[in-house]
Structures are given as C-alpha cells and as structure tokens.
Amino acid sequence: MTAELVRGQNHPLSQVRLEVRISAGKPIVAGATLSDEQGRVRGVEWVAHPGAPTLPGLEVSKQAAADHRLAFDLDALPQAVHRVSVLLALPTGVGGPVRFGAVAAPFVAVTGLDGLEVASYTVTGLDAESAVVALELYRRQGAWKVRAVGQGYAGGLAELLTDQGLPEARQLAAGINEAVAQGLARSVAAPPPRTPDADRSRQAAASAPGPDQPYAGSGTQGTSGTVPPQQTPYTPGPQGATTPQTGRPGSPAQSDPSSGAQPPSPGAGGPVNYSHPGRQTAAPPTPPPAAPPAQPGQPAQPVAGDATGWSMEERLYNQVWGMFEDLARTVAAYRSAVDFADSRMEKELDQVLSDPRSRIGGQGNAAREAARAKHALLVDQARAALDRDLAQLTAEAEVVEPALPRAYASWDNPVWHAYRAPMEVPMALRLGDLRLPESENLSIPMLVRLPLERGLWIDSGRTSLEGTLADSDQVRRLAMDTAVAQAARLLAAYPAGEFTVHVIDPAGTGAASLAPLTQSGVLDSPPAAGATGVADVLRRLTQRVDLVQMALRGGAADSLPPDLDIAEQLLIVNDFPHGFDDRAVTQLRYLADEGPAVGVHLMMVADREDATAYGPLLDPLWRSLLRITPVPDDHLADPWVGHAWTYEPSLIPANSQVLERVLAAVAAARRSWNR
Questions:
Q1: Which of 1, 172, 356, 602 is deepest in the core (most CB within 10 A)?
Q2: CA of 338: how far to CAs of 36, 96, 115, in Å?
Q3: How far apart are CA 22 and CA 30, in angstroms?
Q4: Partners of 30 in beta bridges
Q5: Element spanning 11, H or E
Q6: 91-147: pLDDT as tens digits
Q7: CA 468, CA 475: separation in Å to the nearest integer?
Q8: Which of 81, 92, 4 is nearest to 45 (CA)?
Q9: Are 523 and 596 in contact (CB under 8 A)?
Q10: Quick one: pLDDT at residue 505?
C-alpha cells in the first residue's frame, strides 16, 4: 500500500533500486545532493543536476520538464553517503513562473522498478519559494527510509545549496541555470495543460496504466489519460478578447496565472490582436467520433479525431499530441526495462565472479548462462511490448495522416492540390516530423501553435547525425530551401492580407532558393541586399514593434498610423552575420525578444560558428529561437522524459510543383484582397 506522507513524516524502504517520479504541471529542474553523516555536501561532485546528471547510484533528468523520473541504486552510493536530498527548482531566465506559489503543488512519488508506489508526497504550502528540498532518502542503522521535507527557499538554488554547506553554491547554481536554459532552447514546447474532465477516450483496455506508469501488459491506449484544455480558434477581434467562431460556444479569454508573463494592455477596440486563443475549460458540446467495435480479442480500430475538442481540427491537434506523448513514454518504458535487465545481469555476474569456487568449472558457466538467459528473456518481453505499442501507434498514424487539415499536412498530402486561401488562422502549423531510434517506421507530426511564440533558427552549419551531407554549400542551400518551404506554409495558413514576409539576403546567395517567393509575387518588396538594405528593413520593423507596443500599452490600439501594416510580419535573414554591423545585430536581438508579442517573427538561416566573433553576446539570440535543421538531426527533446528526438524537415517532394501552385494561389488571393 502507498504511504501518503505529510511534511516531516518518514517511511521505511524495502528496496534499494528505486525511482522518484515528479509531476509539477510546469517545467521544473530536478536534482539531488549527497551528504555525509553530518548532513554536509562535500563538493560539487556530490550534486547531480542537468549539467552533470549521473553520479554513482544516482541519475537525474538532463533538462527541465513537467514530469521527471530520477533513478536510484542505494547500494551503489559511496559508503560515506548517508542522505540523498531530492531538489526541485524553477528555471530562471526563460520566461516561466518565478515562484512555486504560482504553479500547481509538485507531486513526488517513490516507486519500485515494478512501478508500484512505496510513498508519495504533495509539496504544499509553498509561496515565494523558487527552490525546495522535496524528499530525502536517509540511512539509519543500515536501513534506508524516505522522509517528506518540503523545505523551500526564496533565494532559489543558490540559497538551497548554501544551506547544505556547499561553498561553491552560487557558481554551481549559475551553471545549473545555464545548462537548463540551453536545454529548454532546444526542446519541443509542451502542449497546453490538461484538464481532468476532458478524457481522451483512446479505446483503452479497462486497466490501462496512467501517464507515468511502466508497462504492465497493456498497450499505449490510455497512456495519455486526458487532453489539453479546449481552445477557440483564433479570429481577429478587439485587443484582449478572442472571438469564437460562429456556431461554437465561446468563453472569455483567460490568462494563465502561472505563466509569469503579463498580456499586453487591452486597446479600445483596436484592430491588433496577436495573442493566442483563449483557453476553454468547459467540456466540448459533442463527443469525438466513436471507434468501430473491436472483435473479441482484437484491439479497437483507430479513428482520426478521437480526442476531445471543439472542432475536428482541434481534435486532430490533440490526437497528434497524444500520439507524441504515447511514443515518448512507451519508448521510455522499454529503455527502462532494458536498463533493468542489464543491471540485473551485471549484478548476477558479479556475484558469480566474487565467489572463487564458481569462477571456473561447470558451476560458474551454468550460472553465467542462466544470467544471460534471464537477461534475454527480460529484453524480449520488453521488445514485444514495445512492438505491440508501435504497431498500434503506426495503425493510428496511418488513419490520422490522411485526415489532417492543410496546416498540419505534409507537402505530399493531396489536400495541398486543392488549396484555397483560408478565412481564419489555424490552431497550429506543421514544421516537420519527429521520430525515435526505436521507431524508424513511425514519425509524429511536429506541430507548433499559431501565432508563433518564438522565432525559428534554421541551422546551416554542421549537423550531429552521421551520414548527413558533408558539403557545406549543399547544406546552406538546403537550409534556405527549408526556410522558403516554412515561409510558404505560413503564408498559406493565414487569410489574404494578414501575413507579410520580408527577406534579408545581403550577398544574394539565396537567390535560387528564394525564386518561388520572388517570382510568385507574394513578397511586398525584393529581398534586401547590402548593408543599406539590411539597415532599412531592420529600421522599419523595429519602428513597427515600437509603435504597436506603445499603442497597446497606452490603450490606444485604434490610433495606429493608417499606413502601418498591422498584418503579422515574418523576417527571413540569410547568411547572418554577413552584412550586419553592431547596430543591426542589436536591432535583430530586439526583434527576436520583443517582436513575437506584437506580430513580428524572425526566421534565421545561419551557422552559429559564423557569428563566433561576437562571443557570448549572441547567446541569448540563439536560445530565444527554436532550432531546426535542413537535414535529419537528433537535437530536439520532449518535455516529459527528455528523449533526443530526430527532427526531419518538411520539404517539397522532388519534381513537385506544389510549392509554386500554392504560392500562386496566395498571390492571387492577395491581389483580390487589395482591390
């Protein structure tokens, strides 16, 4: 039975191989410190954190995440260690909440390797604290126990580590925050928070495990539990409000009190609104489509749009996110099972070798063969469960992919051949696909919400995967092709006149890739070249950001100059930093930081090494952008278990004219709108 602890209560531990599972609702940093019998942390080498996630007998998550699994082998800890403290902290400098009082109370559970909870603790009573010691595992008279601590620190990690007697506390805290910021900069954004009354209904078996439970014989159905809260599709309306679509129930837009950021001040009926759709909390009026009844002994057949939502578009969006979560967690369970099998075999082999009588001869050989046979059996069982779940997810993907709306569809989907300019902005946009090494034949669409919350950096430098193109010129050309394809998607997703694209190409090296944009007439002006062209475009866009910000803050969004283009703007920058002086670099950083909130978005096509002359000055710029690559690369991480996902860009099929046809339709719609 699970012991539900309160602050200060302890509970004995009957196992030494454990997991500590943490759920916080918002990305947090998880770590652990080792201390001796006097409760002293002897040095930074006794602290496990995202920058140094592994110590003997202990492994923590490599990045900030809403859900964590920390692994412990108490027998493998150094003999001098008598206490292990589990630390939680809010990441700093990333725009998230800055105190635990603004987020849901973190839930911490100690489980065995079989997934059964031994003890749990909800860390309540926090307010201004930004770091907390949640639990401690401690040794008393040769036995281990767990105690609920809940000690918070308003001074953050630095104060917490100082309190534990670490002399280098401030330097280590700064290093942890830097490692977390870099990890968040490359992570896939988590979907909106879930609501308990919006079940996903994925035709699960009656005893399907929850989102954090390991495999227990059931498939991936049900591993996602609930769906994100419902959202009304965006339509332009007065600043500070969201207009629901005709025929759909609406509710006032609500801000997220835990986000740590304040929305712009509302204007007096002005025409500018670049905020995300208001979050709906009520259940949708109609249930998702029901799956056909399954034959006895057979799994239920997948159905496109079986998640909850106000519309088919939203149901498909939620379903794709659910598939992403399912794949992340099913692979995490498989890897955990294999790790357990490996460690068990190593332990059994060590026991054989530790006994001189069994090192040689038939008895030792038999023991080794038995250990290897147990290992093979455990791995085969884990692989069978993984294959079953992958087959189910693959079947679901085969049903979902053809049903995706245009903004979510790949370029080879026939839906693009019947393109017409939309009347409203979709919820999200597809940037590419994501897959894991264990699922080579299964990829999940990578969807990002619209309007974009951060800019895009298309890396034209080296990639980390073997077998990718080695010719830097080819990679740069592919990077620009990727930028054009993504810009075309954005243009096609917005109604006519609501999205404007600018291009900076100082040396003209991207002319061939930019030809579809320039020849179709979707650009308001030719790509800017030379230092003068760069300065002019940046001046106009920074001026636009300043004007809109002042109008919104002053509550006068209807008083903007009549010649100001209030459509959302995208700036494509090729070959950065060529053609940029110090002033231009400063303006670019300003656009990256302040632009998204007022509808100005940045798409950089650049090799970071080309800008090394600026030193750390540009580090905040790179971190503020979502890095994607023109060739497959395993650089993105999920917000649940921190897998390294392989990203594949969404490119135009070879010898296809779909891009030209779509841009021609966009240009025609723009001309009709301007009449």
A1: 602
A2: 32, 35, 15
A3: 8
A4: 88
A5: strand 10-12
A6: 887 777 889 988 889 999 999 877 788 999 999 889 999 999 999 999 888 889 999
A7: 9
A8: 81
A9: no
A10: 95
Total-model pTM: 0.64
What's the CA angle centered on 513, arms 507 and 519, to 5 degrees?
100
Enumerate residues 6+ apart whose C-beta is below 8 A from 300. 203, 221, 291, 292, 293, 294
The reported pLDDT for the residue numbered 272 is 64
Question: How many other CB atoms are found less than 10 A from the CB of residue 596?
Answer: 20
- How far apart CA 105 and CA 352 sit, in angstroms, is 46
DSSP 422: -
Give residue 290's identity as a one-letter amino acid code: A
pLDDT tens, residue by residue, 413-471: 999 988 999 989 999 999 999 999 998 889 999 999 999 989 999 999 866 555 554 56
What CA–CA distance (Å, rounded) separates 115 from 128?
A: 33
Run of H or E residues at 152: strand 143-153
Nearest to 317 by CA among 195, 194, 445, 221: 445
**Contact indicator for 594, 549 with CB cutoff of 8 Å:** yes
Q: Which two tokens stand for residue 13?
A: 């531990």
Q: Give the pair of three-digit tokens for residue 389.
A: 């779940």
- Separation of CA 656 from chain center: 32
Q: Select from 100, 76, 128, 118 the least CA-distant residue to 27.
A: 100
Cα–Cα distance, 99 to 522 (Å, whole number): 46
The answer to whether the CB of 37 falls within 8 A of the CB of 161 is no
Residue type, 661: R
C-alpha 87/C-alpha 153 separation (Å) is: 11
